[in-house]
Amino acid sequence: MSHDLPSLNALRAFEATARHNSVSKAAEQLHVTHGAVSRQLKALEHELGVSLFTKDGRGLKLTEAGSRLRDGCVDAFGRLRAVCRELEQVQAQAPFLLGCSGSLLARWFIPRLGKLNADLPDLRLHLSAGEGDVDPHRAGWDALLVFAEPPWPADMHVHDLGPERIGPVISPHHQQFARLATAPASALLGEPLLHTYSRPQAWPEWARQQGLAPAQLKLGQGFEHLYYLLEAAVAGLGVAIAPQVLVAEDILAGRLAAPWGFTETPARLALWVAQRRQDPRALRLADWLREALQGA
């Protein structure tokens, strides 16, 4: 042989066939066709230079060489399965590290963290905050909660949680609140608008959806992060623009108002999980997030 081991797929096909004494049952177990298993067995026999099965009526019977290989496969695959189970248990006991923006963490996630811990006690969630273009490939993260536009990265499994909806918000403490709260959206063209450097397209996108010319917008104070922008808006320093999910609690509490409503953007809020890190906890977290967002 030119390699230390034959194809592992061929060995799996052989082990399943030897266990069931049937190519059809092996194909069913492996979720492949009868022909695919037969080809794997023929290739394995050719590579090893021995016959592994003989016909036994309508079934198969292992040759002496086949019996020896079966015993080796049972032992090897058994040990592999045991190690994989141990690794899965280690993964299940390790903390689940979730990355998300600091503004999403502070304004939406932390107020619901107690309920999440009660609902998913085995998750052992650890949170890591970032801002701007958060890298989904960052080492150590198990998943990333992010607003982003499709198409999604090919190496990510994406749990779509819902559309992003954004709109202007203003504090009742703003000096012009009484006038602006009943004014049309076009009234904002003359206002110095609060904005973030991390998402400069937010106001122009909103203006286009309102049928307004983005070039007529007047940008005022800028902030590095959305969290600071919203704190400035709550303080009455100006009109800000933000995702609805991040200001819903402020609106309910009367700290902010949204007289012009919210509109959908092309972005989606989604939980991204690297394909190589398939963890059943990610699906449970996605289901919990989806339910929590529907009640947000």
From TrEMBL:
Transcription found in the keyword field: yes
InterPro entries reported in the protein's UniProt record: LysR-type_TF_proteobact-type, LysR_HTH_N, LysR_subst-bd, TrpI_PBP2, WH-like_DNA-bd_sf, WH_DNA-bd_sf
CDD domains: PBP2_TrpI
Gene3D superfamilies tied to this protein: Periplasmic binding protein-like II, Winged helix-like DNA-binding domain superfamily/Winged helix DNA-binding domain
Pfam family, one: HTH_1
Keywords from the named record: DNA-binding, Transcription, Transcription regulation
All copies of domain HTH lysR-type, residue ranges: 6-63
Keyword DNA repair carried by entry: no
Family assignment from sequence similarity: Belongs to the LysR transcriptional regulatory family.
Protein name: LysR family transcriptional regulator
